[in-house]
Write a structure and sequence with these properties.
Layout lengths: L5 H25 L3 H14 L1 E2 L10 E6 L2 H11 L3 E2 L2 E8 L10 E4 L4 H10 L6 E4 L11 E6 L2 E6 L1 H6 L3 E2 L1 H6 L5
Parallel strand pairs: 2-4, 2-5, 5-6, 6-7
Antiparallel strand pairs: 1-9, 3-4, 7-8
Helix pairs in contact: 2-3
């Protein structure tokens, strides 16, 4: 039986481990979908926004999703078991007929901007953080609009709309928001 040189085993073992770890990182990176990325952004808005003390209280912190079941499902996975202000975070699908004033966040997608503008107008002055990926949502008075720029998900924040809703958005979010000066 030939005698093996142990010095040759260590480098090849290290190379094998490095390749396995690299493949694992690549596989994890491929698991990030657009809906899960948007869900993560929405959850971060929960963490970095303050609602007024007189906002209607309920048993749960409700995030409503209008028109995008994939984001709704990803958001349910992202917030499962999490709390905000000692209340469980729940995700609720809504329709045009569903009352939305019980929502703390309303995410809207997949509808014309004119219909989204109507939803925003219904919630004017209500402490509801309105968010969307619809082009023109920001101009229609929505508080946060997602968009892609150079392959990265970005967002705009309409500060006047946030003030009207009496929401305090953290400077941490404002610093990375896209400005429309």
């Amino acid at each position: 039986m030939p005698v093996r040189d142990r010095r040759g085993i260590a480098p090849s073992l290290c190379a094998t481990i490095a390749i396995v770890l690299l493949l694992r990182v690549v596989c994890v990176a491929q698991d990030v979908t657009e809906p899960s990325l948007k869900a993560a952004f929405i959850y971060n808005f929960v963490k970095f926004t303050e609602w007024p003390a007189d906002a209607p209280a309920g048993e749960a912190f409700v995030i409503c999703v209008f028109g995008d079941a994939a984001v709704g499902a990803a958001l349910k996975r992202a917030v499962f078991g999490r709390l905000h202000a000692d209340r469980p975070i729940v995700v609720s699908p809504v329709t045009a007929e569903t009352p939305k004033r019980g929502c703390r966040i309303l995410y809207v997608s997949g509808i014309p901007v004119a219909q989204a503008a109507q939803l925003v107008a219904e919630l004017r002055d209500a402490p509801v953080l309105t968010m969307s990926d619809i082009e023109g949502f920001y101009a229609a008075g929505g508080i946060a609009q997602f968009f892609f720029e150079h392959g990265q998900l970005r967002f705009r924040i309409h500060l006047e709309s946030a003030r009207r809703a009496r929401l305090q958005i953290s400077s941490r979010l404002l610093i990375i928001a896209r400005r429309n000066d």
